[in-house]
Amino acid sequence: MSEVCVEDELDLQSLLKQLLRSISDQISSAPSTEHAEDVLLHLEETDKNFHNYELVKYLRGYVERSLGSVVDEGMKTWTRGEGQHAVGSGHDALIQALTHRTRDSAEYHQMMQTLKSNTTAVVESLIGVSEEELSSQSNVQYVDECSDSDSSFNQSYGFIRQEQLQVLAEQLDVRKPKEVRREALQALCSAPPSDVLSCESWSDLRRNLCAALTEPDLSDRVLLFFAKSLSSSPLNVTREIYTSLAKSVESAFVSNKLMFPSGSAVVDVSRPEISRLLKQIRLLNDFQREATTFWIRHPEKYMEEVMESTFSLLSPRHEPGSCPTERTLEPVHLLVLLDVRATWFIRWMHGCYSRTVVLRLLQRKYKCLGSAGNSVLLSESEQRGVYSGRELEYAHFVHSLSLLGKVIVYKHGRKLFPVRVKKHKGNTPPTHTYTEKNTLQLSWWPSYLVMQLLWTLSERDQCAAECLYQRKVMETLLYPVIALLNGQQLNSPVETLTLIADVLARIANTDRGLSLFLSEQSHSERGSAAHVVARFTLRLLDEDVPLLIDSQTLCGPFIFVCRQIYNSCEGLQVLRGYGLHQAIAAAWRRTSSMSERVPTPVPGTSEEASSMMMQSTLLMEETLLDSLLNFAVTPRGVLLLQQSGAITECVQHMFSRFTKKLQVSRCEKFGYGVMVTQVAATAPGVVALQRSGYVRALAVELWSVLECGSDDVRMVRPKPTPMEPIDRSCLKSFLSLVNLLSSSQSVWELLSQQPLANRSEYTLREVPTSVPDLIDRLISVDSQHKIHSLFHYEQSHTFGLRLLSVLCCHLDSFLLLESQYDLCSVLLQSQRDNRTSPSPIRGIMVDALSVERNHVLVRVGALGGPSERRLPSRSLQEGERPYPWPMFSSFPLPSCYTVDPPEIHQTLQGTTKKRPKLTLACVCTLFLSVQRQTLSSSSFPWLLCGVVRETFPCPSQVHVPAGMSECGISPLYWCTAHYVELLLKQEVPLVHSAFKMSGFTPSQMCIHWLTQCFWNYLDWAEVVHYVLTCVLMGPDYQVYVCVAVLKHLQSDILQHTHSQQLQVFLKEEPIRGFKVGEYLDFLKGLESSYRSIVLSDMKSIRNPVE
């Protein structure tokens, strides 16, 4: 084996030193050298940590590397000779034979020789280092021969007397010869810093030490003493050294007046005068970084002195030179070479204790802040190196940017702005300082740093509101976009536009930022900023920007900006005239056709380039498809997505990302729940969801958590019995299924003409894959075969009955379920089977399932508002009658569940007097509900049925254009419900946020209410008031009434959102306490604010903008 290399020898030396430190106590306690050797020889027996020492691990690995092959060869030879593995006594013989063979091998002798020689060299090296250290310390080692502590522990220790320090102070005087001062400095560096700093002559010493800093031959020794003192002394002492050093550096810069070239000429930092100052600033910067770890334990005045001396040092003292080729070298220029990202300042601003003092001093000494702003405005550097003047300016720019960015994120820091900077007219707001240079002169890397700072500002709401959401900032960011639209050449690189788009997207993602985008005052030319971005995006999609060579790279970022605008109702209102959905769909089709082509080999083109081009095309295709999908966030956006012809592909893309659990976007905090709910509200959307595999995946996932659970996982304790009707593990799947089936359109598409299986046998491994399968297995449980096929019959059937209860709240859905599956007969028969005896006189046994069935039967058998029908409770109560509600096994319902007949008769008598007016209301209802299409089997005129039972029918029908009726999406959804969401965000933002968090949408619930005219949710009198209000005041009042109802339910909505029961609450519970008359003032206020938009759009349904 060859000798160990130098690196291994150094490693061995450090490991040996580490071992000696670890056992220093055992060695020092040994009475003699022989005993210490004995301790080392038996260390494995006495030290339990022996095998954890790094030296032992190193030696073990070294032996394995050296002798491993010898041992393996011996094992093979022995095995071949014996023919079997050694066991018992043969095993011991094998070990002995291998040991002797290994010790006799040449590899073993070479290993021992190499290890011995290297270990000897390492030990001799350690002995030499120790002797040098002892000899250097002996020059200043003084022995107290008359110690006052006359005890058995009388020992000598190193110290220096006051008289000797006085002598050293005199020897360091500037008038003394240089050799005398050098020797005095050497002795001072070897003395304990605590003795030096506490001596009576410290003031003279400090003055002489600062004077020695200016001399090249002595400055290194002084810095050595200062570094030793700063690292081992408390803050009340080190602050004097730090402030003295800072003042010395400051005076050196003032007296020397160093210059450096501002262009690309080289700045030689190895020049003696610069190198000396650089070392001193390095020591200051090291202390600045570490000071925050201990200065909180000391009075604030000490910390303030350190900060004040720092800011005084960094404040500029020279005006910019008249010569454009040279600039004055300031302390900050050398500091930025050592700490370009201002780590010291970031640490100072981290804690409130020090940040308060920093901001207070900056307010008093703002020159360094002005210098930082001046650097950001005037810098034109690029990051190429360290030593040219241009790189020095760039480092200064980065340092200043980091400093300003840390100040501006705090409220009290923003009070320091605006500041006045050189060569710039007027005061400069902080963000304008950054964005102006980014868009006009700075190159790629400075632009990226500026944008990083703007991203940080955009993540803080208050900071972004004060700094970013300003008209001037928006104009500056959009300047290059407008220049390209006007055919002007850019002064900044094209890549900067990508960064600008990223910042614009972050601004548009917030409510305040979106308002700035949509405001007509946000830009002075041709409308709002949203219009500018939309026009530029359309030009990029059409590749109609001649000054851009590769416009495709900018398409994605600027489409993402538009996406943040049109995924809100108010943003879509502004952008819908541009036809972005059609332009994006056309671009997607072009890109998709390109990705499907087989690339033709081109001579001179590498495979790697072709592969990168194909990946870029696929990425662009995905970006465009994802942007189209985001139209589905709003009701009108779903219509535009359907009109684009790509709704099926978009839903497939959404399902693909949904299964991979990918985030919607970097700006979106929630998942795809809102999109799924919006798409499921329409017939084309539900069909697309079914084709994508979403419905099947949802059914399989539901069955796995409901029936399979985690029984295949080994459990320490039994699974607890669920206390809630729907276990928490199943709640997510339950809510997803409710969102999917919330609309009667989705129920019709998924269940129409779909019979139940009703097989005579079900296997335990058979998993439902569709909604009819779930109804067959969980709701219509009418045979023993179905019961025995469920592992958790009671829990699963309860789940199905709860789902049925929610579905039956929508009367259209109930009609379809009852007409196809006769579910009421199934439930009544189950109640009969649950009797305690065959006799019809005996009652039905009360259990969880009978209670659930009773609730569903009453819900579907009685109609009316909160005071017109009584729904039985689902829970038991204490007392003799735990369930006071009567159960039944045949219709009609017991009289206790409905209003008394005299009350109903009185209500009908009151309405017959106004029969002509109510008949007119019926005629208008078809118009007011914006259902301008021939009634199909998927919708039933509930108000018409209820009001004109004894009057003549309404023959009037209103039709929408053929193109709109063929799309399969009701105007009640994309017009009325769209404006409900728009007004809700403006008027009741908390409710709007609650819906978004829950994954449910206000449009779904409003469609539910409006299609059955609030029947089963409001009392009959309030239903009449609602209809008459819409007839007399205008059809737009149905939007305002929905907003008023949601405002009335605000507290309940927030509460049930927290408990994840919002969908169930809104569908099953009536609207209690709502009176249309009490909200007339609120409705009139909404009319005055929004009628010009809402009503005009309703009137334009015949000719919608596509």
TrEMBL record:
Residues 807-909, 956-1101 form the BROMI C-terminal Rab TBC-like domain. Residues 163-369, 381-789 form the BROMI middle region domain. Keywords: Cell projection, Cilium, Cytoplasm, Developmental protein. One of its GO terms (biological process) is non-motile cilium assembly. The keyword Cytoplasm applies. Residues 12-133 form the BROMI N-terminal domain. InterPro entries: BROMI_C (IPR055392), BROMI_M (IPR032735), BROMI_N (IPR055391), PHAF1/BROMI (IPR039156), Rab-GAP_TBC_sf (IPR035969). It is found in: Cell projection, Cilium; Cytoplasm. It comes from the Eukaryota. One of its GO terms (cellular component) is cytoplasm. Required for high-level Shh responses in the developing neural tube. Together with CDK20, controls the structure of the primary cilium by coordinating assembly of the ciliary membrane and axoneme, allowing GLI2 to be properly activated in response to Shh signaling. This is Protein broad-minded. The lineage of its organism: Eukaryota, Metazoa, Chordata, Craniata, Vertebrata. The gene is tbc1d32.
